[in-house]
Amino acid sequence: MARRVEPPDSWIISPTPPWATRALCELLGGRVVLSGLVASDPACGELYMAKPLAEYFRAVIASDVHDYGAGQDLVEDFLFPGSEWLADWIITNPPFRLGLEFALAALARAVNGVALFIRLQWLESEGRYSELFSRFPPSLIAQFVERVPLVKGRVDPEASVATAYVWVVWDKAYQGPTRFEWIAPCRKKLERADDYPPRADAAPAALPLFGGAA
C-alpha cells in the first residue's frame, strides 16, 4: 500500500449531499439497530456526511487528512493513522483513486460493517475485483434511481450531473451472496433546507427594528 500523497488541489472536495447519506441509513435501519452504534467517516471533509450520520448513530468519529475547519474530531491520514481507533460502522465517500485502499483499511478496522459512497464505474476494475471483491464480496450494492449531484468544492441543490453513484456495503454479520437493490426516489423526502449553506446571491435577512444590547 503506497503512502497517500495529495496533489495541491485534492483538498477541494466534492461533498456528498446529506440526503444521500440518510438514504443509506434508512436502508441499513431496516436491517440493523443503528442508534446504539458508533460510526466513522474517515474522509469527512466539511461534515456533510458526518452530520446526517449523527442523526442515526449514537456517536460519529469524523476525521480527514486535512482540516477543513468544520469541527472534525481528528486530522489524520486514514491509511496511515496515528491512532488505532475502531468504529462499529465505517461510512465514507473516499477519494476515487484511493477507494480500494480505503475499502481494505475500513474492512480491517470496522467492527460491524463498511459502506462506501462511490461512482458506479468503480465496480468495473479487474484490479479491484482481484484485490477486493473476489476476496471480500459486498453484502449489498445499492443503486440510486435518482442522480446524486456532486459538485467540486460545494454542495449545490440546483446542480445536475451525469455521474451515477452507488452505496457499496459490507455487513460483516451477513452470510450470503451479494444483493443488488435500487434506492427508490427519496430526495424529496430526505432533503432539508438547512442541509445547504445560504446562497451567496440570497437576499439578506431583514434587520430587526429594535436590536438587543450593544
Write up what this structure looks like.
The protein is of the alpha/beta class. The relative contact order is 0.17. It is globular. It has one domain (18-193): Rossmann fold. It has helices spanning 18-29, 50-54, 99-109, 126-133, 187-190, and strands at residues 38-41, 59-64, 74-75, 87-92, 110-119, 140-144, 165-171, 179-183. The protein has an 8-stranded mixed β-sheet with strand order 3-2-1-4-5-7-6-8. The model is unreliable at 1-9 and 202-214 (pLDDT under 50). The protein is built from 5 helices and 8 strands, in the order αβαβββαβαβββα. This is Methyltransferase.
Tags for this model:
globular; 8 strands; disordered N terminus; SAM-dependent_MTases_sf; disordered C terminus; Rossmann fold; alpha/beta; Methyltransferase; 214 residues
Question: Can you tell me the number of structural domains?
Answer: 1
Outline the low-pLDDT stretches.
1-9, 202-214
Q: What is the highest CATH level, the class?
A: Alpha Beta
Tally of helical segments: 5
- The first-to-last residue Cα distance is 57 Å
Structural class: alpha/beta
Organism: Elstera litoralis
Protein name: Methyltransferase
InterPro entries: SAM-dependent_MTases_sf
Helices and strands in order:
Elements: H1 18-29, E1 38-41, H2 50-54, E2 59-64, E3 74-75, E4 87-92, H3 99-109, E5 110-119, H4 126-133, E6 140-144, E7 165-171, E8 179-183, H5 187-190
Parallel strand pairs: 1-2, 1-4, 2-3, 4-5, 6-8
Antiparallel strand pairs: 5-7, 6-7
